[in-house]
Amino acid sequence: MKRRDWLNRIQQLDPETDFAEIYRISSTHEFPWDTTQALGFALYRTYAVPSIGRLLAATGEFTGRTQKRYDDTVLILEAVVEHGFGSVQGREAIRRMNQMHKRYTITDDDFRYVLATFVVVPKRWLDDYGWRPYSAHEVRASVNYYRELGRHMNIRGIPETYEEFERLLDDYERANFAFDQGGRDVSDATLDLMASWYPTPVRPSIRRSSVCLLDDPLREAFGYPRPPALLRAVVRGGMRLRGRFVRLLPPRRAPHYARDGRLVRGYPGGYLVSELGTFGPDAPAGGGCPFPHGTAVEGPATA
User: Which residues pair with 272 in a beta bridge?
Assistant: First the structure.
């Protein structure tokens, strides 16, 4: 295979009908590491919205069991990417998301904003740090993929274009980013988790470096001091150099999923999608999902 073969394959597909396949190729062949980082960063941005950060802190899950919450979120989202919306695993993953969300009062405005982060942040990340930017096909496929995910979550008023998603994200952040102790606590726990993936001596440096990747409105919403300009330039420059290095590598023949890496640590013996996440004492088995799925069937995410 040549370096551009996957992109050529993407260009042969229709982003209006083949969006799930295009998104899978981009996420698992072209940009597996970048996609994982960007989606993690997308979720991280939402903590700076007080209504979201405060809720996540109140559950205690994102501060007390941060690694498990990371694992569960990654694996649930990944099941849909890998197996598709109509698969057993994809339906079960969406059911689990809807069951968990139903336990809380979450506005459609917040849901739409979170969906917008999934569309906009990865494109911006790849523009800055990727070995190449998203193609127009990939941008449109990402929009359609997350519109479909939003439809399965019964979110109303979903934007139709990337430009509409981008405008929604920017307007919502300008209006809602603010300091909240709950959001700060979730942010601190997340940065500590990221640092824990590295050897102990370098963990303080990893945390400081992570703050260098935050834009000023996001950093200020969490109350972090501005990093030294030199450190910020070195960290961001290093990320861009990584992208240039990856550009020289051969294409990835086999798909790479987050569970294949070293960051998902909670399920060394495997898992069922239906057992991921949190369960309330009053949550009915198989219930709480607003989207019709048909008969639920259990199956391992790796099947």
Answer: 300
